[in-house]
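FAQ
Q: What does a multi-component entry look like?
A: The components come first, one per line:
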Amino acid sequence: MDLSLTDEQKVRKQEFDDTCKELEKKKPPSFVGFETIYEVDECWEYNLYCAKEFAKKGWLALGWPPEYAGKGDMMDRVLFAEARGYYGIPGVDIFGVQMLAPTLLQAASEEIKREFLPPIARGEVMWCELWSEPNAGSDLASLSTTAIKKGDEYIINGQKTWNTGAHKADWGFGVFKTDPTARKHHNITFLLHDMKTPGITVRPIPYLDGHAPYAEVYFDDVHVPSKNIVGQEHEGWAVVNLLAGFERSGISEIMSMIRGLEQLVTFCNETKRHGQPLAKNPLVRNRLAELACELEAARALAYRVADLQNRNEMSLMDASAGKIFFSELGERCAFLATDILGPYGQVKTSRWAPLDGLWERMFHDHFITTVSMGTNEIQRNIIAWYGLGLLRMR
Amino acid sequence: MDLRFTETQEILKKMARDFLTTECPKTLVRKLEQSEKGYSPELWKKMAELGWMGLIIPEEYEGIGYTFQDLVVLLEEIGKNILPGPLVATITSTFSILEAGSEEQKKELLPKIAQGELILTTALLEGDGVFDASGIAVKATSKGDDFIINGTKLFVEMAHVANYILCVTRTKDGTSPEKGITLFIVDSTTPGISCEVIPTIAADKLCEVRFENVNVPKKNILGKIDEGWPIVEMMLRKGAIAKCAESIGAIQTCVEMTVAYSKERVQYERPIGAFQALQHKMADMWTAMETSRYLVYEAAWMESEGLPCAKEASMTKAYVNEVYKNTSKWAVRLHGAIATSADHDIPLYYRRSLASDIAFGNTDFHREIVAQKIGLV
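Then the predicted structure of the entire assembly, as tokens:
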């Protein structure tokens, strides 16, 4: 057991931290939490700016093989994610950089890799994921949007939904039913398509706070070149599982919560209630300390996941456990912080809002991590079925 | 970064597992709970032959000279199996001697500890039941070449069989509770010492130890006079991590036993483990186990490297305390009535979860340390 960093890693960690700290100074005031990039134009501009800055340093291709202009290794990716999480910096496209790129590296043809990886590394093309449908959520393989092959094209018809950032993205990767007669899990193909293709309509969906981080996407005779395939035709389910395996360790989210806790500690030290600092209230102390313990536990597990990833020994169980733990910790953070802030906890970003309204925001944003990327209930099934070897639900 | 065990640790783990499986079955655990001594001298001798008491003692004092991390690996295996006796009490007391003992004290005691010839324990708590220095009222008064100790210590693990008791005393009323604390290495056969076992949930032989005009020579002061509290803090820190190492082993057993039972037990024509109500609870138990495990390894690594880790040690103890209690509780619940019986093994773990929680500081004690360390004024 060794958690130390090499001298080289320490140098790079410093570079990641310094860069993110600089970028933080350029945050627009409307940037409150990562999801705002999809909701407010100036935040999306800021996202693109950060992406370009990271691209210049080669940080969007961390851990890629050198032949695709890769730089550094998986551990660098962890250190970079920590810095971005702590300072709350966007610019690393969740869908393009974190999910699609590693999937392409493992499953795509050389032609597809050469075409799609460089624009991702340059921070030029932003992606969205088109998986869920109105009647295919957790049971994704029951999807019904079709892509029927005709000559050297697929013609897509149907509807996708809950597509985060689809109204901002340049390209999308989706799963579509290509063989309506074949059995479930062997009738799906993984395709890449330009979001500007005629026949695509994107309608933003208001989240529970009225902002729109996600959208629904309609396909009406959308023509996609058949070369834009990842994996085998009709065997897109394997690609879905591969991509889902690039589950984030959650280290960014955890570091963001650690920063949030630090700010909360400062708030409690500086804010008087009943004639003394909130920090002197034994209940506040106990609850904040409990949260700090849980955050450290979350970080320790995230390192475990990263350590496995570094050796290409991904454990589905640990990734699911990490996802459950850090996302539900997000709920507990938000509930506790809004409790401590009292009536101010409900205030949106404004002159009445302590800590820029972060916790009002977090009180509803946490669903984004508990519900998306496989609900936590699905993650529990994964642990139970594939990890603990318990009988699968029929 | 590499979170895998070293080869040495893998060997140590396997040896411990094999040894405990053969030498310490649950029948023995139950027998020892009922026994007066609370440990098996024969087993103790065999453990000494394996080098367990000398594991963290440097080779120059005839120990094995392994690291704190290695100890954690051993304790995790012990926790999985359960091993009643004075091992943790002796090892944590040994830490104090290693840290603060004079060369003479080390030469005198450490080789004997490594050989399994001595049992040690630390007498910290008193009537107040608090783990901070304000609870220390047992007085040691200077008289010629001796100190005279008077007062009562409580919850002293295995004191009734210990050869030496490291007694935390007040030698001066200082400006703060931490000032004026002195540790003494007290021979348990000294006249004036009496000992009584307190009946506790884990039957782990915590004792009331009364000191009535107990003469202890000055040379038996451990560390510096009036400046003993940092030794206690160190002992609590290392003890907390060590206890958590045992706990993560116990938590693993609770999870494994529950999963295995849920695959066998049939109700409604299928194994109860096929029901999602139980599956999700077991997934949560497993998740809690994993978070605990890597938290303990992180703290153990820091302690081994000599990095400051008071915050991480307290975070670990505060967190693992709750996970052990809850996981063993859910192990009973998911088993159902069968695991409420004294004949079942799960209750052995459930009862110990409270003892482990309290040992070296309960959750609230450690949360207050964390509160200070994260910067709350």
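Q: Is there any commentary attached?
A: Sometimes. For this entry: The beta strands of chain A are 127-130, 146-150, 153-164, 171-177, 188-194, 200-205, 214-225, 229-230, 272-273, 276-277.
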